[in-house]
Design brief:
The protein is an alpha/beta fold. It contains seven helices and nine strands, in the order H-H-H-E-H-E-H-E-E-H-E-E-E-H-E-E.
């Protein structure tokens, strides 16, 4: 299982604070862009769905979300809100083939160790239908480490990610970047990649 248990424990512990943080966030323009890239009725894997905010928007806009998370507390909160059954799985347990029209992985894959990232992208590649869309966002930086809450993160630069994307047979269709204040209270730089399956 690829999920870092200490990171999961922290999300479980701070679930109320996380809910408050998410409720204060502005409309996610990346999600709006993502939804315009896929056809209504499409099946979307919400990978590391958290409290289910993205899945709620996907449902409202006519898509079929499949929310998954490795945190028990995130699952509990999301199920209460979405009124649908979620799967408690980690990234390396994604085993569908040619099933999803798109994958939304917003600030979730950054919890994977760098030496596992390429393998996880391969799994996501095979789970997508032909020309499927993948969105993922990462924190900008160098190396790996834990934040002041103890959560594990891998940090990347844009050129580093572009090489990984190309090797995984995806093509970047659009790129976004910005700053945000997370659960630990620090203002951090992030990058978002909208990718298309090409292999």
């Amino acid at each position: 299982m690829s999920a870092d248990q200490k990171t999961l424990d922290i999300y479980n512990k701070y679930i109320t604070d996380y809910e408050k943080l998410i409720s204060k966030e502005l409309k996610d323009t990346n999600l709006d862009i993502f939804m315009k890239m896929i056809e209504r009725g499409g099946k979307v894997l919400d990978l590391g769905c958290g409290t289910g905010a993205a899945s709620r928007e996907l449902l409202k806009n006519g898509f079929v979300p499949y929310p998954v998370d490795a945190s028990l507390e995130m699952i509990r909160v999301a199920e209460a809100s979405l009124k649908i059954k979620l799967r408690k799985i980690s990234f390396d347990e994604i085993d569908e083939h040619d099933f999803y029209h798109a994958i939304w992985a917003n600030f979730s894959l950054l919890h994977i160790k760098k030496n596992q990232f390429s393998d996880i992208l391969k799994r996501l590649f095979f789970s997508l239908k032909e020309e499927g869309i993948l969105f993922f966002s990462l924190k900008r930086g160098v190396g790996e480490g834990r934040d002041k809450l103890g959560r594990f993160y891998s940090y990347y630069e844009k050129s580093e990610v572009e090489k990984i994307i190309e090797k995984a047979s995806f093509r970047t269709r659009r790129y976004s970047e910005g700053f945000s204040i997370g659960l630990a209270g620090d203002k951090e730089s992030w990058m978002g990649f909208f990718c298309k399956k090409i292999g």
